[in-house]
Amino acid sequence: MAPMKLYGATVSWNVTRCVVALEEAGAEYQIVPIDFATAEHKSPEHLARNPFGQVPAFQDGDLHLWGTYATHMILYLLVSLCKYDSIVVFTPAIIYIYIYMHHKNGMFFLPESRAICKYVARKNKAAELLREGNLQESAMVDVWLEVESNQYTAALNPILYECLVSPMFGGTTDQKVVEENLEKLKKVLEVYEARLAKHKYLAGDFLSLADLNHVSVTLCLLATPHASVLNAYPHVKAWWDGLMARPSVQKVAALMKPSA
């Protein structure tokens, strides 16, 4: 059987979110690089994989999964070039992502890196990462998957853009934006600290995709001047240290380094 294919750049935390799931599931897969510098994401070949010209895109035989939520680096660059054409609507404070799923040319399409992660877990008999055999536990996994996306990563994205992405392209860091979102992140971490004081992992006393989906974006946080923010929350820090000890996370950390 041909390996699964994940299309994208390993500097993208949405792409490497999928890599963590692939590694944890023990899946056979191939990462196919997409070069944004040469606009490969807008090539006919890639648009056939992802009609919005974004990453990640994922293929498993005839099944194609793709995301409408590109990394903030890609979003900001495309908007700044005034060439962005998709269902993403920008407002001063929020990015609204309108996600849908449909059939096209006989192939089933799903959006989002998190959908890819769920598929990988189910496909490779790693469903324990979703706890689908237990209604209450699976509900808690779903809750914390939503928290990761809508609270944790939502607070982190502006920080990562200002600290990592903007300087990469000659911009300056807006410290006001950073400080505002650090305060938001700290409030989120207070909730995490209370939760992890009672449970080893977010959804309960078991590792789940809800924990693993935090990995790639947190690795990016550690590359900013604000990496020490986790140290003020001992249970969060212990949880993160446990995740960092996992081989899948160590591999992703190596992949995300620019020299990798």
Structure, explained:
The protein has about 260 residues and is of the alpha/beta class. Helix content is about 50%, strand content about 10%. It is built from ten helices and eight strands. It has helices spanning about 15-25, 45-50, 70-80, 115-125, 135-170, 175-195, 210, 215-220, 235-245, 245-255, and strands at about 5, 30, 55-60, 65, 90, 95, 100-105, 105-110. The strands form two sheets. Strands 2-1-3-4-8-7 form a six-stranded mixed sheet, covered by helices on one side. It has a two-stranded antiparallel sheet with strand order 5-6. Helix 6 (about 175-195) crosses helix 9 (about 235-245). It is globular, with a radius of gyration of 18 Å. The model is unreliable at about 70-110 (pLDDT under 50).
Offer a quick outline of the entry.
The protein has 260 residues and is an alpha/beta fold.
What is the correct CATH architecture of the largest domain?
A: 3-Layer(aba) Sandwich
Number of domains: 2
Report the C-alpha radius of gyration, rounded.
18 Å
Low-pLDDT segments, ≥5 res: 69-111
Please count the helical segments: 10
Could you please say which CATH topology of the largest domain applies here? Answer: Glutaredoxin
Question: Can you count the beta strands?
Answer: 8
From the spread of the alpha carbons, the general shape counts as globular
Report strand %.
Answer: 5-15%
Straight-line N-to-C gap = 28 Å
